Amino acid sequence: MIYKIEWTFRAEISFFEEAQFILQKWNIYEVNKFESLVGDELKRLSINPTIGNFKGDDVYSLSLSEQTTLFYKINKDLSLIELLLFWNNLRNPDDLIKLL
Known about the structure:
YaeB-like fold; 30% strand; 44% helix
């Protein structure tokens, strides 16, 4: 069964912010690699939604790279994955708790 991927507004904004961070720190080539990586991981996730680590409150995390983690929820009844947030692991973890 393939799960549908749904982006929350916060996920869209945080994805854009992460891409901007990569562009400022490196270059457009690295941004394109990041976008491709995210696309590949979302395909994997849609086939096997539980590949991430369960964090509690129905929230899972999936490490995309050394610097970025994706947080998401699974709705098995609707076969839906709700993307919550792309998190830059260099940020203060206390801020993450507030966002989730």
